[in-house]
UniProtKB/TrEMBL annotation:
InterPro entries on file: Cyt_b561_bac/Ni-Hgenase, Di-haem_cyt_TM, Hydrogenase_cytochrome
Main location class: membrane
Residues spanning the membrane: 105-123, 169-193, 213-234
Locations listed in the record: Cell membrane
Origin superkingdom: Bacteria
Species for this entry: Aureimonas populi
Domain Cytochrome b561 bacterial/Ni-hydrogenase: 2-247
Record keywords, A-Z: Cell membrane, Membrane, Transmembrane, Transmembrane helix
Membrane topology per record: Multi-pass membrane protein
Protein name: Cytochrome b/b6 domain-containing protein
Amino acid sequence: MPTRLAHWAWAVCLFFLLLSGLQIFMARPDLYIGQQSGFSFDNTVLSIGAAFDGDSMRGYTEILGHRFDTTGWLGAIPVNGNLHAKSFPGWMTIPSYRDLATGRVVHFFFAWALVVTLGFWLLSSLVNGHLKRDILPGPNDLRGLGRDITDHARLRLRHGRRYGALQKLSYFVVMLLLMPLMILTGLTMSPGFNAFAPWTLDLFGGRQTARTLHFVVMLLLVAFFVVHVLMVLLAGPVNELRSMVTGWFRIDSAEDGQ
């Protein structure tokens, strides 16, 4: 039960964090490496913007010095038939219009909700053995990882009582590495937290690097979500969703006989 509750709480938190985070990002749609950005040097690794090509506006996304035309998707967005200089379309942000203050309020609320949920899940998983049994990969899991990856690539998906090696490793990376890294890099961007724990700036190589890492972790979590949903659909959405809601799960007949 605690795992299922945390699962749905994470889904809600990450949805609002993603869309409100993109709203905040629009205030400065650039990512840097280092302590600071400046005019006398260029440490930009990503930039989203708009520029005029003659009389027409074009949106662009620049990654490590390579510029791509993203008109209509990023940088220059159609609004009522006309292109406007805007990093993301309205459906990708909360609120859908430019409102940094509201975006920050929503983002911080769900950020702390995520922290509380992660703490609740970690404590309950230590108590009920879920962490050791289902999340931490053991030697047998690592030895069987290659075969499990091959089975997933061939869509040979098993319905068993235990998580497979790839599942364990994926959840371990997301829950115990990416989630804490997302929280810690978010805190590092706060001047108030820097005063309390200045070592975080040294740990991440500066506030701008922490912001870039925060963005990269967000992309990794979105990628995990897409793969997670795809696996649910391929494994049988009725069975998978029923297990997420009720805890009842149909397993393969071969494992029933064990």
